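Give me C-alpha coordinates for this 176-residue protein.
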Amino acid sequence: MPHPTHAPPIPARTSAPPAELSLEARMAATDAAMTVRLEEAAVAYEVNTAHIDTEPLDLADVLAIPLTPTLQPPTPYATPVAALLQRAHQRMITGGWCAGSLTNDLGATCLWGSITKEAAGPDLEQAALGVLMDVIRRAFGAHIDSVPAFNDSCRDGRIPLRMLDRAATLADTRGL
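Here you go.
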Protein backbone atom coordinates (compact mmCIF):
# COMPACT_ATOMS: atom_id res chain seq x y z
CA MET A 1 0.00 0.00 0.00
CA PRO A 2 1.55 3.31 -1.04
CA HIS A 3 2.07 5.98 1.57
CA PRO A 4 0.06 9.14 1.20
CA THR A 5 1.99 12.10 -0.03
CA HIS A 6 1.83 15.50 1.52
CA ALA A 7 -0.36 18.15 -0.02
CA PRO A 8 1.49 20.63 -2.20
CA PRO A 9 2.56 23.77 -0.38
CA ILE A 10 0.29 26.80 -0.56
CA PRO A 11 1.86 29.35 -2.88
CA ALA A 12 2.80 32.63 -1.34
CA ARG A 13 0.44 35.51 -1.93
CA THR A 14 1.58 37.57 -4.82
CA SER A 15 -1.09 40.24 -4.75
CA ALA A 16 -1.37 43.06 -2.28
CA PRO A 17 -3.52 42.53 0.80
CA PRO A 18 -7.14 43.71 0.43
CA ALA A 19 -7.83 47.26 1.38
CA GLU A 20 -9.35 47.77 4.79
CA LEU A 21 -13.15 47.91 4.60
CA SER A 22 -15.10 50.52 6.47
CA LEU A 23 -17.38 49.52 9.34
CA GLU A 24 -20.46 50.15 7.19
CA ALA A 25 -19.13 47.95 4.39
CA ARG A 26 -18.31 45.11 6.80
CA MET A 27 -21.78 45.40 8.41
CA ALA A 28 -23.46 45.35 4.97
CA ALA A 29 -21.49 42.22 4.01
CA THR A 30 -22.38 40.53 7.29
CA ASP A 31 -26.05 41.48 6.86
CA ALA A 32 -26.11 39.99 3.36
CA ALA A 33 -24.44 36.77 4.53
CA MET A 34 -26.86 36.43 7.48
CA THR A 35 -29.87 37.05 5.23
CA VAL A 36 -28.77 34.22 2.95
CA ARG A 37 -28.25 31.88 5.94
CA LEU A 38 -31.67 32.76 7.42
CA GLU A 39 -33.42 32.16 4.10
CA GLU A 40 -31.70 28.78 3.77
CA ALA A 41 -32.71 27.89 7.34
CA ALA A 42 -36.34 28.87 6.66
CA VAL A 43 -36.47 26.65 3.58
CA ALA A 44 -34.86 23.76 5.49
CA TYR A 45 -37.41 24.19 8.32
CA GLU A 46 -40.33 24.11 5.86
CA VAL A 47 -38.96 20.98 4.19
CA ASN A 48 -38.27 19.22 7.49
CA THR A 49 -41.70 19.98 8.98
CA ALA A 50 -43.91 19.57 5.91
CA HIS A 51 -44.92 16.03 6.91
CA ILE A 52 -46.21 17.03 10.38
CA ASP A 53 -50.01 17.21 10.62
CA THR A 54 -51.30 20.23 12.49
CA GLU A 55 -54.76 21.21 13.64
CA PRO A 56 -55.95 24.71 12.94
CA LEU A 57 -56.18 26.83 16.06
CA ASP A 58 -59.70 27.80 17.06
CA LEU A 59 -59.58 31.34 18.38
CA ALA A 60 -62.38 30.50 20.81
CA ASP A 61 -59.97 28.11 22.58
CA VAL A 62 -57.66 31.01 23.23
CA LEU A 63 -60.20 33.64 24.25
CA ALA A 64 -63.12 31.71 25.77
CA ILE A 65 -62.06 31.39 29.39
CA PRO A 66 -61.18 34.34 31.61
CA LEU A 67 -58.04 33.96 33.68
CA THR A 68 -59.95 34.83 36.85
CA PRO A 69 -63.62 33.88 36.77
CA THR A 70 -66.04 36.55 37.80
CA LEU A 71 -67.88 35.91 41.03
CA GLN A 72 -71.11 37.44 39.76
CA PRO A 73 -72.98 35.25 37.29
CA PRO A 74 -74.12 36.90 34.07
CA THR A 75 -77.70 38.06 33.65
CA PRO A 76 -79.71 34.84 33.44
CA TYR A 77 -81.58 33.80 30.34
CA ALA A 78 -85.36 34.10 30.53
CA THR A 79 -86.08 30.54 29.37
CA PRO A 80 -85.70 27.70 31.90
CA VAL A 81 -83.45 25.33 29.90
CA ALA A 82 -81.18 28.16 28.77
CA ALA A 83 -80.96 29.45 32.35
CA LEU A 84 -80.12 25.93 33.59
CA LEU A 85 -77.34 25.56 31.01
CA GLN A 86 -76.02 29.01 31.91
CA ARG A 87 -75.94 28.09 35.63
CA ALA A 88 -74.16 24.83 34.78
CA HIS A 89 -71.62 26.83 32.78
CA GLN A 90 -71.07 29.21 35.69
CA ARG A 91 -70.73 26.27 38.11
CA MET A 92 -68.05 24.72 35.93
CA ILE A 93 -66.18 28.03 35.64
CA THR A 94 -66.07 28.58 39.38
CA GLY A 95 -65.87 24.97 40.57
CA GLY A 96 -63.72 23.45 37.86
CA TRP A 97 -64.05 20.68 35.29
CA CYS A 98 -63.40 16.98 35.72
CA ALA A 99 -63.63 13.81 33.65
CA GLY A 100 -64.46 10.24 34.60
CA SER A 101 -67.07 11.08 37.28
CA LEU A 102 -69.93 13.50 37.90
CA THR A 103 -67.87 15.31 40.53
CA ASN A 104 -64.41 14.87 42.01
CA ASP A 105 -63.04 15.33 45.53
CA LEU A 106 -62.35 19.03 44.91
CA GLY A 107 -65.91 19.76 43.79
CA ALA A 108 -65.20 20.01 40.06
CA THR A 109 -67.95 18.68 37.81
CA CYS A 110 -68.26 17.18 34.38
CA LEU A 111 -70.81 18.40 31.83
CA TRP A 112 -73.54 16.08 33.04
CA GLY A 113 -72.67 16.63 36.70
CA SER A 114 -72.91 20.42 36.42
CA ILE A 115 -76.32 20.13 34.74
CA THR A 116 -77.54 17.59 37.32
CA LYS A 117 -76.49 19.81 40.24
CA GLU A 118 -78.26 22.85 38.77
CA ALA A 119 -81.44 21.14 37.49
CA ALA A 120 -84.71 21.54 39.39
CA GLY A 121 -86.04 18.25 38.09
CA PRO A 122 -85.42 15.36 35.70
CA ASP A 123 -87.50 16.84 32.86
CA LEU A 124 -85.49 20.04 32.81
CA GLU A 125 -82.26 18.04 33.09
CA GLN A 126 -83.17 15.84 30.10
CA ALA A 127 -84.14 18.87 28.00
CA ALA A 128 -80.81 20.56 28.80
CA LEU A 129 -78.85 17.39 27.98
CA GLY A 130 -80.73 17.14 24.67
CA VAL A 131 -79.81 20.68 23.65
CA LEU A 132 -76.22 20.12 24.77
CA MET A 133 -76.04 16.93 22.71
CA ASP A 134 -77.34 18.84 19.65
CA VAL A 135 -74.58 21.44 20.06
CA ILE A 136 -71.89 18.77 20.53
CA ARG A 137 -73.01 16.84 17.45
CA ARG A 138 -73.14 20.01 15.36
CA ALA A 139 -69.58 20.82 16.34
CA PHE A 140 -68.00 17.35 16.39
CA GLY A 141 -70.22 15.11 14.25
CA ALA A 142 -73.03 12.62 14.72
CA HIS A 143 -70.67 9.88 15.90
CA ILE A 144 -70.67 11.25 19.50
CA ASP A 145 -72.68 8.77 21.58
CA SER A 146 -73.37 10.66 24.80
CA VAL A 147 -72.54 13.73 26.85
CA PRO A 148 -70.38 11.74 29.33
CA ALA A 149 -68.45 10.08 26.49
CA PHE A 150 -67.78 13.48 24.93
CA ASN A 151 -66.77 14.99 28.27
CA ASP A 152 -64.35 12.16 29.02
CA SER A 153 -62.72 12.52 25.58
CA CYS A 154 -61.70 16.13 26.29
CA ARG A 155 -58.21 16.99 27.57
CA ASP A 156 -59.30 19.98 29.62
CA GLY A 157 -62.41 22.04 30.39
CA ARG A 158 -62.13 24.62 27.62
CA ILE A 159 -64.23 22.79 25.04
CA PRO A 160 -66.88 21.53 27.51
CA LEU A 161 -67.28 25.10 28.79
CA ARG A 162 -67.68 26.38 25.25
CA MET A 163 -70.27 23.68 24.49
CA LEU A 164 -72.30 24.66 27.60
CA ASP A 165 -72.22 28.31 26.58
CA ARG A 166 -73.31 27.51 23.02
CA ALA A 167 -76.05 25.20 24.33
CA ALA A 168 -77.41 27.97 26.57
CA THR A 169 -77.52 30.34 23.58
CA LEU A 170 -79.22 27.70 21.41
CA ALA A 171 -81.80 26.89 24.10
CA ASP A 172 -82.60 30.59 24.46
CA THR A 173 -82.92 30.92 20.68
CA ARG A 174 -85.32 27.96 20.61
CA GLY A 175 -87.31 29.42 23.51
CA LEU A 176 -86.65 26.43 25.77
